[in-house]
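Worked example 2:
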Amino acid sequence: MLKKISINKDISIAHTIPSYYYLDDNYYILSINKIFKNSWQIIIDKSSLKSNIYPFTFLKDSVNEPLLLTHANNKYFCLSNVCTHRGNLLCENNNNSNSIRCKYHGRVFNLEGNFLSTPGFENVKNFPQDSDNLNKLELKIWKNFIFNSLNPKIDISDVLDDISHRLGWYPFNKLYYDESNSNTYMIDAHWALYCENYLEGFHVPFVHQGLNKDIKLDTYNTELLNNGVLQYTMSKSKKDALKIPSGYINSDKDVYAYYYWIFPNMMFNFYSWGLSINVIEPINKNQSRIKFLSYPLNGYKQPQNIDSSLDKVELEDQKVVCNVQKGIKSQFYNKGRYSVKYETGIHHFHRLICKHIN
């Protein structure tokens, strides 16, 4: 039987999650079943959806659920990509068909997932039934982005509402997907270690020399949200700061960026040039996939090849996270303590993990 993991709510006396959480296959499986299967994940932005039928996989390599995003009558639908006859995968590529036809035995569904027809079933009694329709799953459309969940037990509305309120001035309609500056990385580290690194600015002076020159670390703020965390800090230069109009939160300050983390694995980072999104996908207890999505504002490009640019900062973060992955395997490490000043976000994250897996 697995040990119950608990984190004291008082950060000043609390210890971090023990190393066996990251190293034991059973805790990894528990996290997939109790956290990720109940999470919301970003699918795509509406502007990048060029077809009526868009097949995708919900968390490939962990949950690995084949799904379809369809668009019909100005509405979006999320459907199972598995035929209700014999389990064949229905669609492998984007297409603009007005129906979904199984290539195995010809069963047809409309773009809302409802059964339309099938050959060879003339003498079958009590057919069709509701179970012959494709399963429909939850969708959430926020700004230009589409999310879905298999079982939406983790409520992310507070985080999205905070972004909408705090950045009510932000020109979301001017964001565009920049494939050339987006990337996918495979790293040899547990998904939670990457999130922990993101959730504190404590390491910036030691790991990110370029970024440290751009921000005022003594102004670093962390605000805890329901199933999320907001971090922000001030810029040393007005030209790099967000241009926040009068009447909005922090309009009198030179905010360098707003960093939003959405439990368990999504990061939305707002800069003066645009938005970057990180999605951390578990592969196994020792590996993660990092999807880095770049969304500049019209007329801007994501900065590249400078000391503080995201491509450089990302690789610096990955190096230290992979070193932590090696370090937690040591017989001399079990768990540590939290910095009350800098690590409230990690403490919050660990308590959320415990809440769900326990």
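Residues 310-327 form the longest helix (18 residues). Helices lie at 20-23, 25-34, 157-166, 191-198, 204-207, 209-214, 310-327, 344-357.
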